[in-house]
Every structure is written in structure tokens, then in C-alpha cells.
Design a protein that fits this description.
Structural class: mainly alpha
Number of domains: 1
Helix content: over 70%
Distance between the termini: 25 Å
Number of strands: 0
Shape: globular
Length: 258
């Protein structure tokens, strides 16, 4: 496995080029082009600010900042899995080229959505400052949370992209699973809002500690729970290894299936 990861590292320039191409393709033909990477999260925040400041009111100060601090990383996670699941099937012409590394396709999807997430963060921080929040030292822990999420997301992306080549129904099942997953993850509500008898479900949800960590850092201005992060990091590492091994096992069948 380590030799294969080293081999993959040699394709870093290819991954970078494909990520840039993917980002350009998303806004090709639009007047504002790449500026939409900044405008989309800004407009999203303004819409939520309107809805939750006027039409719906929760018992939290600056609820929009709380919501967006969990929603942006969730969108990175969910969009990556949904798009990665069909990346091998959609990239059939590339897969049939002998020297093309198939694992690059789901990796490019994850990194493309990661770039959009990173470009959204300054908008969120400016929005937070405008709402009266202050920049605190806890923000230094943000890269650690991002790395943990990256490893976990890459593992699932490799796993689903490989399985979907043989079981096309996975992309449709995954869409429904992600919808359910979103609502059982504390993004639009706090962990404290979950009835006590159901809080054990948080322990079964590896994404929940990540979303809570973002909320702790951005909304509450405090350090995340490092013990919980370590647990998710361990689980994410296992998922990454599993996803990589499944991908390697099925790699030889991709060309004939797509």
C-alpha cells in the first residue's frame, strides 16, 4: 500500500491540473467566472441570514453564524461523496488509457470541493466579524479539523467510487443516505438540543464531532474536543485504508465495466 501511495504522489501535478480544470469547467460560459466561488457562499449566507433573522428565530444569538460554520464543511463532505461516487463511471475514456491512475478521479473531486470550501472560509470569518465575533486563538486548530475531514472524505470517496462501478444503484442510495445523515448530524441544531436518551447516536456518527469542532472554533471561539477528534481521526484512517484497498482490488475491472 505504501508503495502505491508513493506512486500516487508522483501524480500530484496531474491532480493539481485536473482540479484547476474542474474548477474552471464549473463556471465556464458565465460572465463572472471564478468569482462565483466567492459569491456563492456569500449569497448563501445572506439567504440564511434573511430566513433565520426574520422568518424563523431560534433561541441562539447569531444563529446564522452557528449554522454556516457547520453547513459549509458538510457541503464539502456531501458534495464530494456524491460526485466521487460516479467519477470513475463518468471518466470512462480516461480509465481505458493504460497509464492513467484511476484513483486520481475521486481525489480530484474531493480536492475541487475542498477548494470551494477554503474559498468560503474567509467569507464566513468576515461575516462572523460583521456579526460581532472576534478572532480567537482557537482558530489555530482549524487546519487540524480540516485534515481529519480530508482523510475521512478521501477514504469514503475511494470506496464509493470503486463500488459504484459494479453497483450503479449506490449513487442513488447514497443521495438518500446523505439526506438522512445531514439531519442526524448537529448542523442545524446543537448537541444539547438532542433529547438525552438519543444522544448516544452522536457516538455512532463520525461526522458529528467534526461539525461540532467547526462550531466550537468559529461560533464559540473555543478549542475543539481533541479526544473526539482523535477518535474520528483513527476511524478516518481506517476508512481511508479500507477505501484504498477496495479500490486496488477492483481497479482491474474498471475498464471493462465502464
Amino acid at each position: 500500500m505504501w508503495s502505491q501511495l508513493k506512486e500516487l504522489y508522483k501524480f500530484r501535478s496531474l491532480i493539481q491540473s485536473l482540479v484547476v480544470r474542474e474548477l474552471k469547467a464549473r463556471y465556464r460560459g458565465s460572465v463572472l467566472g471564478f468569482l462565483w466561488s466567492f459569491l456563492n457562499p456569500l449569497l448563501l449566507m445572506l439567504v440564511y441570514a434573511l430566513v433565520f433573522s426574520i422568518y424563523f428565530r431560534f433561541g441562539m444569538d447569531h444563529y446564522v453564524v452557528f449554522l454556516i460554520s457547520g453547513l459549509l464543511p458538510w457541503l464539502w463532505f456531501a458534495s464530494s461523496l456524491q460526485e466521487a461516487s460516479v467519477s470513475i463511471v463518468a471518466g470512462g475514456n480516461l480509465i481505458k488509457k493504460v497509464l492513467f491512475p484511476a484513483e486520481v478521479l475521486p481525489i480530484v473531486v474531493v480536492f475541487s470541493n475542498f477548494v470551494n470550501f477554503v474559498l468560503s472560509l474567509p467569507i464566513l470569518l468576515l461575516f462572523s466579524l460583521f456579526s460581532g465575533f472576534r478572532i480567537r486563538a482557537a482558530l489555530l486548530a482549524l487546519p487540524l479539523v480540516v485534515v481529519v475531514q480530508m482523510v475521512f472524505t478521501l477514504g469514503l470517496a475511494l470506496l464509493f467510487s470503486a463500488l459504484c462501478v459494479h453497483f450503479r444503484d449506490i449513487q442513488h442510495i447514497l443521495a438518500n443516505i446523505l439526506t438522512l445523515w445531514f439531519f442526524v448530524t448537529p448542523v442545524i441544531y446543537r448537541v444539547a438540543d438532542i433529547p438525552e436518551k438519543w444522544r448516544f447516536t452522536i457516538l455512532l456518527n463520525p461526522v458529528a464531532p467534526l461539525m461540532v469542532a467547526y462550531q466550537d472554533i468559529i461560533y464559540y471561539g473555543r478549542s475543539p474536543n481533541y479526544l473526539e477528534l482523535a477518535r474520528v481521526a483513527l476511524f478516518g484512517g481506517i476508512i481511508f485504508v479500507l477505501g484504498f484497498l477496495v479500490f486496488e482490488k477492483l481497479r482491474g475491472t474498471f475498464a471493462e465495466e465502464v
